[in-house]
Amino acid sequence: MTRGTRSGTGATRPGVVWAVPAGVFFLLFAIVPLLLVAVLSFTSWDGIGEPRFNGLDNWAGLLDDPVMLQSVWTTLLLTALGVVTQTPVSILLGVWAAGRQRNRAVLSAIYFVPLLLSATAVSVVWRAVLDPNFGVPAELPRLFGDGNLLGSRSGAIGVLTFVGMWQFTPLHALLYQGGARAVPRVLYQAAAVDGAGRVRQFLHITLPQLRNTVITSVILMVVGGLTTFDTVLILTQGGPGTDTTVTAFHMYQKAFKSFDFGAGSAIALVLVVVATLISLAVVRLSGYDRMRGTAEGL
Length: 298
Prior knowledge:
globular, mainly alpha, two-stranded antiparallel sheet, 66% helix, 4 strands
């Protein structure tokens, strides 16, 4: 077995052999499928028989596909709304859960229940709750009007944003809870001596110290938002019309409904490239790749 090497700080680094299982797993289940999808994007294949090479036809078709461009903008919109709505709520809940309030553990456990549910189960539940005939909107017509929240673009986008926030905010709150607990208590003690209240401590100590966690959380939100599929499939079916057709759902329609796996593969590659570029942009613009501190926020 390869021995570990000594780093400059005196810590022992594990040998390269320890990375082999993860590397093999990543190669088989990420790199190889991605390469196969790249090859299929240059072919015409209905899932039966042999794929037939068709050059750049699939890519040219994307440029002439109005639903494709609309799906990209819808995906970016839902991703941005997810980041804007989930981030502040997650930070506040995470910081609160990191404290020592009475009944904090019980309330945190209840709020983290959505983490135990799959996206499919969550979507089915909320579709039943928001049913215009038998759900909550039918019982509160003054608040919801005709009750058909999914019948308009704005209503459907709002529902998708809310459901995503309800399901995934606990995950990000858990990240912030861990980050907040890693903040040195001496910083708060020094601030209290100087007369800083809780709000000032939160703004000038907690938030700056959670910088790394915020960046990590935002990247997870971006990747999750760009790959949203099952919630749209169950709640809106891409409707009304194509108003909530996101890129992943459009890929599903092309490949598994129209049996055009070549075009579906091209859409999948576009999604991978966009997600990668946005994630790299967040890392570069935030300076996360240049941070060397081992403590949160340092």
